[in-house]
């Protein structure tokens, strides 16, 4: 990983799409700071298309798509994306799976949750589980005392033994049935909303993240950026971000936003 200030200004000035994780990337210790939200506003005002790519649930994503200065949001690690049409006053949602598949998968995940909660002492259903449509989120450090690495690995193993995908974020292990992730749904979003292959837009895209469920994005994007707390997750990663910010969480996201905006300002001066 290289320092953010090695991202050349002439490259940063070309960024048109900024994709970002939310937890511990845009937020800091579970809160969205005024500075981080103001950075979203400044990016939007500068004409940069901001798209959160998160593991958070559909219920949260509905609010985010409606209320934040963003174009759309990918949720539940790629299970769907949502875009709010402000003129038409309607929510446009595209799911990976059909309604029938999601209902069947929910029954399987409900059964699996019993095995995980009984098999890994100290873990819990994530507090936002009731707002999820497609996955099962197991909390290992958000609202419970942090569990050791062996416990996190056991949660992942229990998911995978049942044929589920499992991804570790900075706070949860998310599991689901279906061959998708953050990157696959991002590809779908760009194809449907911009009539573009994501590969064609690599020179004008950047991604910010902080944890293992961001790994497909770190691997794919030339301008992938980890906020400084990515350092605590490197033991879980094979593919690291190309750049890293000086600061953690939302402050790191602000540094990235400022770097891009300043580069654009210099280019246009």
Question: What does this protein look like?
Answer:
By secondary structure, this protein is α/β, with parallel strands linked by helices. A hairpin with a 4-residue loop joins β5 and β6 (90-95). The protein has two domains: 2-96 and 180-268, HAD superfamily/HAD-like (Rossmann fold), CATH 3.40.50; 99-176, Hypothetical Protein Ta0175, Chain: A, domain 2 (Alpha-Beta Complex). The strands form three sheets. It has a six-stranded parallel sheet. It has a four-stranded antiparallel sheet with strand order 7-8-10-9. α2 packs parallel to α8 (249-268) and α4 (99-119) crosses α5 (149-161). The protein has helices at residues 9-12, 34-45, 58-67, 99-119, 149-161, 182-194, 215-220, 249-268, and strands at 2-3, 17-20, 49-52, 73-75, 80-85, 90-95, 124-125, 136-139, 165-168, 172-176, 205-209, 224-226, 243-244. The mean pLDDT is 96. It is 37% helix and 19% strand. The chain is built from eight helices and 13 strands.
* Integer count of domains: 2
Number of helices: 8
Shape: globular
How many beta strands in the DSSP annotation?
13
Order of helices and strands: EHEHEHEEEHEEHEEHEHEEH
Intertermini distance: 30 Å
Regions with little confidence, pLDDT below 50 for 5+ residues: none
Helical proportion, percent range:
25-40%
CATH homologous superfamily of the largest domain - what is it? HAD superfamily/HAD-like
In the CATH hierarchy, the architecture of the largest domain is: 3-Layer(aba) Sandwich
Largest sheet: spatial strand order: 1-13-12-11-2-3
Main sheet makeup: 6 strands, parallel
Return the CATH class of the largest domain: Alpha Beta
Helix/sheet category: alpha/beta
- Structural Rg: 18 Å
| Mean pLDDT value | 96
Indicate the proportion of strand residues: 15-25%
CATH fold annotation of the largest domain: Rossmann fold
